[in-house]
Amino acid sequence: MWLGMVLAVSFLEAPLKFRAPGVTVRVGLGIGRLVFRALNGVEAVFAAVLVAVALLGAVPVPVPALAAAGVLAVQLLAVRPGLNRRSDAVLAGEEAPRSRAHLVYVVLEVLKAAALLTGGVLLLAG
């Protein structure tokens, strides 16, 4: 489920919304913030459940699945604050330069998706 949500939001909705007629950068950023806040909230719950299950040792949790939780933590704690500052500036009408943090976030999304896919395959194979 987590992988499907990441693929749908990060790799479909996020880039496509800016191609829709009449969607400005400000409108797209506003929508994106809401969507990613919701996605990240659900992801945090999934990650917390994975970590709790791993700590309790009731069910083996593949290392890649736990790595996805770690990637999410990096995204939320290290990358998102900078992205939020930039989007705040753009939404306030300021001209803000493109952010390298966005590229870092995308790379982390790819790593998280790969970790989730690998963890899922290991769960199904085990």
From TrEMBL:
Q: Which residues cross the membrane?
A: 35-56, 63-83, 103-125
Keywords, comma-separated and alphabetical: Membrane, Transmembrane, Transmembrane helix
Q: Please identify the protein, giving its name as recorded.
A: Uncharacterized protein
Instruction: State the organism of origin.
Output: Nocardiopsis flavescens
